[in-house]
Amino acid sequence: MRLVLASTSPRRRELLARLGVVPDRVVGPEIDEAPRPGELPRPYALRLAEEKARAVAREADEIVVAGDTTIGVGRRILNKPADETDHRAMLGLLSGRRHHCLSAVCVIGLDGKARVRVTDSVVAFKRLTDDEIDWYLRSGEGEGKAGGYAIQGRAESFVRFLSGSHSGVVGLPLFDTRALLESSGYRFA
Q: Which end of the chain lies in a sparser environment, N or C, as judged by fewer CB atoms within 10 Å?
């Protein structure tokens, strides 16, 4: 049995390594990640995780794992910032308030069945000053990240409260990933 990671995210590879899992193949899925009109954050994260897993060609002896991390503020989805102005606006929106980090994982097992779960972690940022936002933007850490931040870096100093899965906020909820892999026939050594 072989494992395919449908993601080029180095963070997801690092998180899988914490489980003692090294993918046999790593493939970047090609999908449209634009939210559908009126789509809410939770269904969006679940849909993307499954679409990413299904976008990768799978051999009969392969299990595919894919994930998606979505930041939700109310009904709004905060994707990756498009530019510095967008990034600054995202951090301003997250400043001083709670938001949801929805980390979905999809595993397609040897039986071809897709199993999907989502972890909803609540994260609260301190009220950010303009200087703190400037400092974070200069670091470049949040570029290409959902919600414009990486909790495993400097942004962790902004977090005053977290309830849920820290690994989920980083990019892959390890508890759910392990459970889905086991139910899909993967054997941990």
A: C
Active site residues: 68
77: its two tokens: 């989805």
Asked if residue 189 belongs to a domain, the reply is no
Q: Per the structure block, which two tokens stand in for 71?
A: 């930041």
Contacts of 55 (CB under 8 A, 6+ apart): 6, 29, 30, 31
Range of the domain at 149: 2-183
Give, for all 189 residues of the chain, the pLDDT tens digit.
Answer: 999 999 999 999 999 999 999 999 999 999 999 999 999 999 999 999 999 999 999 999 999 999 999 999 999 999 999 999 999 999 999 999 999 999 999 999 999 999 999 999 999 999 999 999 999 999 999 999 999 999 999 999 999 999 999 999 999 999 999 999 999 989 887
Look at the chain and report how many structural domains it folds into.
1
Q: What's the CATH code of the domain at 6?
A: 3.90.950.10
